[in-house]
Amino acid sequence: MQPLTVLNECFGHSSFRGQQLDAIQRVLAGGHSLVIMPTGMGKSLCYQIPAILLANQDRTDTAKRGLTLVMSPLIALMKDQVDSLRAREIAAAYINSSLTRTEREDRYDAVGRGEYDLLYVTPERFRKPEFIDVIRRRRVDLLAVDEAHCISEWGHDFRPDYTRLREFRELLNGPTTIALTATATPDVQSDIVQQLGLRNDEVVLFHEGIDRPNLRLDVIELWDDDEKLEHILRIRNSRPGSGIVYFTLIKTLMRFSDHLTAQGVPHLIYHGELERTQRKRLQDHFMNEPNHLALATNAFGMGIDKENIRFVVHADVPGSMESYYQEIGRAGRDGLASECVLLYDQRDLATQMEFLKWSNPDAEFYERVYDFLQHELEQVTAFGLDWLRERLHHRDKHDHRLETALAMLDRYGVIEGSLSPFDIQLVDDLPEPLRDQSRLDEKLRRDQQKLYTLVQYAKHEGDRKAFIHEYFGLPYTA
């Protein structure tokens, strides 16, 4: 069976895009790769098709069947991908914290019996001895690292367990490895290769570039919400079809939703505080119905592969070029003309500066949180996070550093359990990276630079696509 046959019969496409086939053939030849493709260009096929072909080599002997192990940081995304694969009768599964203990044990048994061709896990799964025991029973032919920018502590979504990938590869006997992401600066690309324990000359880079000729990029500088509303309505009325308007804050989103409702403009709203079932229903509604307008925070993104989104508007300044580029990449995937507009109000920078403060606690704050969990966990569990927040923030309810600190303690494996509802155990010491103030200062400096780059982009008077290419270290021809 050839890659094109699998593309045809399993995924319903008649031809490959860009460098997909080159990346697939590199994997099948046993070579390591780093794949950088814009959102919606089909990165996942670069490992899914090899996984099917590799598994078919041993189809007659299930016990000897090779496995493709997929590292993904996002539980919701891996579920969507596995559901899609299983609908195509491809033997895929995931193991993560959303499963009950019985469900996890059943899937461990199935992995040991050789029942899956693709297995999706988060890197944190390697903390579990029972997982390591079962994965050692399988021959892992291919390790796919999705959202590979999470490897880099200087990337925009660092996951500490991704820095253990060198260790994981050794445990798996050094399988062929493919790392994939939509965005990575040259520094992050180098970091990915290094964290995988590979040399640059062992890894072939497949970079699709970031030029989407059908996307028109524009920045409109304005001064108040009335102007923002006016431009959102103008764009909506001039671009028939579906569109997304991104907001930073839920309260701002809701305010604009009220304005649109008052003017009789139908739309849906999507943000992270909605219940999961409601978010799924809204996402399905947006995907399946034509001419929808969605007002959303950046929680609306993963799994949004609708081809005919005609416009993406940023009503607020995003926090980084990486986030901005991923979000505008949801427009015009059918190749037709689409508009990407940033409504730049300098006052919005104050919100992003607050976000930077919240997402970058200092070493002293991490130590205070750890001290409370070490010595007063019973009270925290009994009275809840609001009680802890009062003691840390002196009644400042608008300070969200606690959420960041707990999330990082969870990512570093310092705590285990549930953050919502709060029921955790302290299982390890405070790690050195969270006690090293110079390291934390450097992280803050880099985050501030990312925001400043967005300001430079907004003020740029030349070709904005050229600006983006330069940021990501790519050549550009107008």
Q: How would you explain this protein's 3D organization?
A:
The chain has 3 domains: 3-207, P-loop containing nucleotide triphosphate hydrolases (Rossmann fold, 3-Layer(aba) Sandwich), CATH 3.40.50.300; 215-351, Rossmann fold, CATH 3.40.50; 359-435. The chain is built from 19 helices and 15 strands. It has helices spanning 3-11, 20-28, 45-56, 75-87, 101-112, 129-135, 165-171, 186-195, 225-238, 250-262, 276-288, 321-328, 349-358, 363-375, 377-383, 385-393, 401-411, 437-459, 464-471, and strands at 32-36, 67-71, 92-95, 118-121, 140-145, 176-181, 203-207, 215-221, 242-246, 268-270, 293-296, 309-314, 338-344, 415-419, 422-426. Strands 3-4-2-5-6-1-7 form a 7-stranded parallel sheet, sandwiched between helices. It is globular. The model has no long low-confidence stretch (mean pLDDT 90).
Would you summarize the structure shown here?
The protein is an alpha/beta fold and 478 residues long. It contains 19 helices and 15 strands.
CATH architecture designation of the largest domain: 3-Layer(aba) Sandwich
Strand content: 15-25%
Computed Rg: 23 Å
- Structural domain count: 3
CATH superfamily of the largest domain: P-loop containing nucleotide triphosphate hydrolases
Poorly predicted ranges: none
Shape call = globular
CATH topology call of the largest domain: Rossmann fold
Give the strand order, joined by hyphens, for the main sheet: 3-4-2-5-6-1-7
Biggest sheet record: 7 strands, parallel
Q: Output the structural class.
A: alpha/beta
| Helix proportion range | 40-55%
Q: Give the tally of β-strands.
A: 15
CATH class descriptor name of the largest domain: Alpha Beta
User: Please, how many helices?
Assistant: 19
